[in-house]
Design brief:
The complex is a heterodimer of chains A (276) and B (218).
Chain A lengths: L2 E6 L7 H14 L4 E5 L7 H4 L10 H5 L5 H4 L1 E2 L6 E4 L12 H14 L2 E5 L6 H8 L3 E6 L3 H14 L4 H4 L6 E9 L1 H5 L6 H8 L3 E6 L2 H9 L10 H13 L16 H14 L1
Parallel strand pairs in A: 1-5, 1-6, 2-4, 2-5, 6-7, 7-8
Antiparallel strand pairs in A: 3-4
Chain B lengths: L21 E3 L5 H14 L6 E6 L9 H10 L2 E7 L3 H9 L5 H10 L4 E3 L8 E4 L3 E3 L8 E4 L3 E7 L2 E4 L9 E7 L2 E4 L2 E4 L7 E2 L3 E6 L2 E6 L1
Parallel strand pairs in B: 1-2, 2-3, 4-6, 5-7, 6-8, 7-9, 8-10, 9-11
Antiparallel strand pairs in B: 10-13, 10-14, 11-12, 14-15
Helix pairs in contact in B: 1-2
The chains are: A alpha/beta (276), B alpha/beta (218).
């Protein structure tokens, strides 16, 4: 049975699209047939992060208004053949998303896919509401800062009230938390909320912690989801999160500062010299 | 014919406050009351067809309740309840079909149970109840909980808690720990900016003493 996962946060700029791209790519890397939908109608970005911006012809809104078939709008990923992208429209606005239309599209996708990942726009209005409405699971993305935590808290409240599952007295959406842009050394200095603080505030299970990493920006700019770069910390953290999502139990990494002691520095020097 | 309930209710309770005049009884002599009644109603038509509450607090000896009610009805005055008076007098009127006002309230009080919220109240959510509220989770920052009665929070209070919002100053607020934005009881309130007594790590209780909100460790 297909599962619908919404990636949401309330606040903008915390890494929803980066996360949607990496989680959906990671699921495809693990052999799951996955479709990722961009719900950010009017501010389309997922296609850039997934590196398929030149191949967008039809979009989600075209499918909702029956101007195109689903198969015409779905873009097959070039790297993983069980990964598909359904882009948003750049010319319309979020009011073009209707509950009936989105419901039909998701029902149709459920027949073919193992996982449907919905990339939510920021805010709590129509776009975000439609992205979460049909979800079975939710991945709440938060940065270690108070404004992001409060907005995430608001979103968790909406997940349990303004969704299909909530309105029809079905088992509630299973929420989990993904902390992004985490910087353990800043936490040690007392300048950033710790993982434990955030867990205590939001009281939902933690799926993963993605460290602040240059590779994330590089990946967005080149249109290759960072999870594909298994040499980077962020890429490994995303793969860990995907594996945990699929039921494996893996210890959290990148949550504490690696001591830059004498031996580590020396080891670092040796490995670089070996490569050179 | 069978009746089924459709979604729209056929009866609905709504709370509303109206002012009702009282009719104070100063004598146990029915004939005297009748004369005095006529005299007063000659001067005004203001109370014609009025519903009134019979104030019996000035009566010391029992009175013929049925006769008094009949006199009222003759003058187009309709008693709906009584107030004051001793048990004996009140019982007479109860037999005649008119109950004491506080009895009406007593019935209401016995129906009070609490509203239990089993989850954390999230940022932006508002919970209001006439009844006491019990919250098993936290109250997040920028969430609001308000009750006509007391509030019990088993998790941490980080938002706003307002007890006794209809003026009940005997209401309490309990919380396991607190970094509240605001705590209010009746018309009194304390914001986080004003005082750090609403910021604590141990289970505590807020109550009104000397017209001020005070915090006590449990």
């Amino acid at each position: 049975m297909a599962e619908v996962l919404v990636v949401t946060s309330g606040k903008g700029g915390v890494g929803k699209t980066t996360t949607s791209a990496s989680i959906s790519t990671g699921l495809a890397m693990r052999g799951k047939k996955t479709c990722v939908i961009d719900f950010d109608v009017g501010l389309r970005n997922l296609d850039l992060v997934m590196g398929c911006e030149r191949r967008v012809i039809y979009d989600l809104i075209n499918v909702i208004y029956k101007e195109a078939n689903l198969s015409q709008a779905l873009i097959k990923d070039k790297r993983y053949n069980n990964l598909y992208i359904l882009p948003a429209s750049q010319t319309k606005n979020k009011d073009a998303l209707t509950k009936e239309g989105v419901g039909i599209v998701i029902d149709e996708l459920k027949k073919d896919f193992d996982y449907i990942v919905c990339d939510s726009p920021a805010g709590i209005e129509q776009g975000a509401e439609m992205a979460m409405y049909f979800a079975d699971k939710a991945l709440v993305v938060a940065n270690p800062e108070t404004s992001s935590i409060r907005d995430s808290d608001r979103i968790i409240g909406l997940l349990s009230s303004k969704t299909y599952r909530a309105e029809n007295d079905m088992p509630p959406i299973k929420e989990s938390l993904l902390i992004t842009r985490y910087n353990p050394s800043r936490v040690e200095d007392g300048n950033m909320l710790s993982v434990d603080d955030i867990k205590e505030f939001l009281s939902i299970p933690l799926l993963g912690v993605v460290p602040e990493c240059q590779s994330v920006l590089d990946a967005s700019n080149t249109g290759v989801p960072v999870v594909s770069n298994q040499k980077s910390d962020a890429g490994q953290a995303y793969m860990d999160a995907v594996n945990r999502f699929l039921g494996e139990s893996i210890p959290m990494r990148f949550v504490s500062n690696e001591k830059k002691g004498f031996w580590n520095i020396l080891k670092g020097k040796f490995t670089t010299s070996e490569v050179v | 014919m069978t009746l089924t309930l459709n979604s729209a209710p056929s009866v609905l309770f709504k709370s509303r406050s109206i002012s009702i005049p009282t009719l104070n009884i100063y004598s146990d002599n029915i004939d005297l009351i009748k004369l005095s009644f006529k005299e007063q109603l000659k001067q005004t038509t203001l109370f014609k067809n009025a519903s009134v509450i019979l104030d019996l607090s000035n009566l010391e000896t029992p009175i013929d309740a049925l006769k008094l009610i009949n006199i009222c009805h003759e003058q187009s005055i309709y008693p709906i309840a009584t107030q004051g008076g001793n048990q004996l007098i009140t019982d007479q009127f109860k037999k005649a079909g008119i109950r004491k006002l506080s009895d009406v309230n007593d019935v209401k009080d016995t129906q009070t149970s609490e509203l239990v919220i089993t989850k954390t109240v999230r940022s932006g959510q508002e919970i209001y109840s006439e009844k006491p509220i019990v919250i098993l989770g936290d109250v997040s920052a920028a969430a609001e909980v308000a009750s006509n009665a007391s509030i019990h929070i088993y998790g941490e209070l980080r938002g706003k808690a307002m007890a006794g919002v209809r003026g009940d100053t005997s209401a309490h607020i309990f919380a396991s720990s607190s970094q509240a934005e605001l705590v209010a009881i009746g018309k009194q309130f304390i914001s986080a900016e004003q005082s750090n007594i609403i910021n604590f790590k141990t289970p505590s209780r807020f109550t009104i003493m000397d017209k001020k909100i005070k915090a006590f460790n449990l």
